[in-house]
Write a structure and sequence with these properties.
single chain; 332 residues; Metallo-beta-lactamase, Chain A; Rossmann fold; 2 domains; six-stranded mixed beta sheet; 14 strands; binds zinc ion; exonuclease; RibonucZ/Hydroxyglut_hydro
């Protein structure tokens, strides 16, 4: 018996017709080049779109694993995207999907290269992502180059704007950091969807059906290319809802046996959403102040909104660790 292939003969006929249709269409001056980060976690996520004379980077990450002092020391070149593919004599733009370091930390090297080649780069993103990206550039002592070498332009999570003659539509996605977006790029008559990190869990969160409907609508629009590179995308199953985690922490804070104990929590430092929810529970349910320790944890804690912590008198809850919850990021 013949081995069952991935495609049935009907699929192959359909695929053949679709390819023939695409080939008949006018060729356009467009290149899509992955510069790093594909199929891995916590690395240099970055795609280069070249259309005519313009270059647009979709995200600009850098490998962050085991780099606690990302603002100090020498970073190996291969931790960055492959910037050799960029022509610094031509207009350059960056669109950032969200504020995780593996999507924005590559800006440090990019800005340094732009300064070296006397090139200007305009960086587009949503409010929180720009705030974090500016902080990254500040701790790397590049903030004085703002306006001279780089500029930021803010857009809303659900909005339409133009970058280098390309129509861009941003759409909100649910991720562990607020202000995350996916993008639809319309280049001449081609539509490209860029959908990087997002979470899709079976939760009671009202954002899930909203996201689902949005994806469906975008899918109905004759998309030519889908760039999707999400952790766990090829695994079956569902992630646990955040509410399950927060429920467990509520029980820990309510447990009288823990009343005299300090509580240490380790997690990804950039998981601002979950950290914020647990911190609020620590305050309201546990009557505990919240503290942060570890370089990257302190970096992201600036975006966690907390009331005056002095009013809580029980033993503290302390969020510790480095960028990705690695051990030994703070002195014990
Ligand atoms: Zn992410």
């Amino acid at each position: 018996m013949a081995k069952q292939g991935l495609f049935t003969s009907r699929d192959k006929t359909r695929l053949g017709k679709a390819v023939a249709k695409l080939e008949k269409r006018n060729k356009i001056d467009l290149k899509i080049i992955p510069l790093g980060g594909q199929s891995a976690i916590g690395v240099q996520n970055c795609w280069l779109i070249i259309h005519k004379n313009f270059q647009v980077l979709l995200d600009c990450g850098r490998k962050i694993a085991n780099l606690r002092n990302y603002d100090k020391g020498v970073i190996p070149d291969h931790f960055n995207p492959d910037y050799s593919k960029i022509d610094f004599s031509k207009p350059l733009y960056v669109i950032l999907s969200h504020g995780h370091l593996d999507h924005i930390l590559g800006l440090v090297k990019l800005v340094q290269l732009c300064e070296e080649y006397k090139c200007h780069v305009t960086i587009y993103s949503t409010g929180l992502t720009i705030k974090i990206a500016k902080r990254v550039l500040r701790v790397n002592k590049l903030h004085e180059l703002e306006a001279l070498v780089y500029d930021f332009i803010e857009f809303d999570t659900n909005s339409c704007f133009q970058v280098a003659g390309i129509e861009i539509e941003s759409f909100e996605v649910f991720h562990s950091i607020p202000d995350s977006v996916g993008l639809v790029l319309t280049i001449e008559d081609r539509k490209i969807v860029y959908l990087t990190d997002f979470k899709y869990c079976r939760d009671s969160d009202p954002q899930i059906p909203k996201t689902s409907r949005r994806f469906q609508k975008i899918g109905e629009r004759n998309i030519d290319t889908l760039i999707v590179d999400v952790t766990g995308i090829i695994k079956n199953g569902w992630v646990n809802p955040v509410s399950l985690v927060t429920h467990q922490f509520r029980e820990i804070f309510e447990d009288k046996n823990n009343a005299e104990k300090r509580i240490f929590i380790t997690t990804f430092a950039s998981d601002i959403q979950t950290i914020g929810e647990i911190a609020e529970l620590a305050n309201m349910v546990g009557g505990r102040p919240v503290e942060f320790d570890g370089t990257t944890m302190e970096f992201f804690a600036q975006d966690v909104e907390l009331e005056n912590q002095d009013q809580y008198t029980n033993p503290p809850v302390i969020f510790v660790t480095g960028s990705q919850g690695e051990k030994g990021s703070i002195p014990t």
